[in-house]
Every structure is written in structure tokens, then in C-alpha cells.
Specification:
The chain has about 230 residues and is an alpha+beta fold. It has 9 helices and 8 strands. The protein has a 6-stranded mixed sheet. A two-stranded antiparallel ribbon has the order 3-4.
């Protein structure tokens, strides 16, 4: 079985066949299709600690939605349980210093300003074939949001993740989500990109949304048939 990130970062022959314009479109996004909605943070921590701060930030955003004044130290302890599962995570050398806290709190503020408390975190989607069930980041107002808080551009893999979640949701007849739009938000840089889902698929794929989502499920199911029992 594989995760949605593994599927999004690999299996290039499938993605190239059914989404032939995705790579070029991702370049267009970074050139002139993103919108700056907040000022960027203007400072940067050691690159080895960036992903740690990003995970703590999202964890703390979740916790402060439930309880105002929730301790950042408590969110850090919770985030550790996620971070420790990543290889080369640099957790042993990380300290929650005032500088790290400033970066974390900046991101939490921007997440709160954009999405507030009336959003759902970790929307869950069923798996298909070789793909495990998976969770997105944020769902609000029929928009599925992927949060990417690095100091980098939006990557094709980020868009593939949103496609995968949307496909799994569309294929699930009992889904609670109606996804009309997709969005990538970077709270560190203050940048956002979003699009109507159908318009996006028609831009990057050579077949309709319904057909390409069916092809995703068929491909993942065929892969599972190839796994020895």
C-alpha cells in the first residue's frame, strides 16, 4: 500500500499520460497565478528545522481553534509524535527557542486570519486499490486546501495531491464533501493559489474530470492486483 504523497511524487508515466500539461501549468502558477494575501515572514530559520516548525504551526493552529490560549509547548509535544516518524527529522537538535516560536506564531496567525474556526481540518478520504485512505489539510466553503509552508514554489506534486484527494472524494458515493475549488496556501510566504476544480482539470488533463478520476481509481486498482498475495 502507498500514501497519497508517494503516489503524487512518483508514477510519472501515469501522470504524464493523463495530465500532460500539469508541469507547465505549475510553472505558470508560480510566475503569475499566485496572489499575495499577507506579507511574507521576512526571516528564516535553519533549513533543517523548517519542516519541524511547519508541523508545530499546523498542530498549534488546530489546538488554538479548540481552546484559545492553548500552550505552544503542549502543541510542540503533540507535534513531536508526528515529526519523530520522519527520517532525518533533526528533532534531537531542535529547541523551541523564542526565535522558533516567533516563526510558528506568525504562521498560526496567518492560518487563523485566512480560515478561522469555521473550517474542517484533516478531511478524510477513502483509499482505492493500492492507495491508503488519506487526509487533506483544510476544507472550507467547498474548497479543499493544501498548506505548503516552505520557502519554495508550488510543485506539481502539490497539485497532484489535491487531484488525488478530489478523485478519492468524487469516487466515494457517501462523501460528506462537495469540492468545487482547490487551493494551495503558504502562510510563511503569504501566497495563495486557487482554482475551480473542473476548470483546473480541463487545463491540465486531456479528458474530462469524471473520466480522469475514473482512470486514477482504475490505475490504483490495477496496481493492487499486481501485488503478490
Amino acid at each position: 500500500m502507498i500514501s497519497e504523497t508517494t503516489f503524487s511524487r512518483g508514477y510519472s508515466s501515469f501522470w504524464e499520460e493523463y495530465f500532460p500539461w500539469l508541469i507547465n501549468y505549475s510553472k505558470d502558477i508560480n510566475i503569475d497565478l499566485t496572489t499575495r494575501v499577507f506579507k511574507s515572514i521576512g526571516k528564516s530559520e535553519d533549513s533543517g528545522f523548517r519542516s519541524i516548525n511547519n508541523i508545530i504551526s499546523f498542530t498549534h493552529f488546530k489546538n488554538t481553534r479548540l481552546e484559545k490560549g492553548f500552550s505552544l509547548d503542549s502543541s510542540f509535544e503533540e507535534a513531536k509524535k508526528i515529526i519523530v516518524n520522519f527520517p532525518r527529522n533533526n528533532l534531537l537538535s531542535y529547541e523551541l527557542t523564542p526565535f522558533q516560536k516567533e516563526i510558528i506564531e506568525f504562521q498560526v496567525e496567518k492560518l487563523d486570519n485566512r480560515y478561522g474556526t469555521d473550517c474542517e481540518l484533516y478531511p478524510n478520504f477513502p483509499g482505492c486499490g493500492i492507495l491508503n485512505s488519506c487526509s487533506g489539510d483544510i476544507f472550507k466553503n467547498n474548497t479543499l486546501v493544501e498548506v505548503k509552508a516552505g520557502e519554495r514554489s508550488i510543485l506539481p506534486a502539490d497539485l497532484k495531491q489535491l487531484i488525488t484527494y478530489s478523485a478519492m472524494n468524487w469516487l466515494n458515493s457517501g462523501s460528506n464533501y462537495i469540492i468545487n475549488k482547490i487551493e494551495v496556501f503558504n502562510p510563511r510566504q503569504g501566497l495563495v493559489w486557487n482554482s475551480d476544480l473542473h476548470a483546473f482539470i480541463s487545463t491540465v488533463s486531456n479528458i474530462s474530470l469524471e473520466d480522469v478520476f475514473d482512470q486514477i481509481c482504475k490505475y490504483l486498482t490495477d496496481l493492487s492486483d499486481e501485488i503478490p498475495v
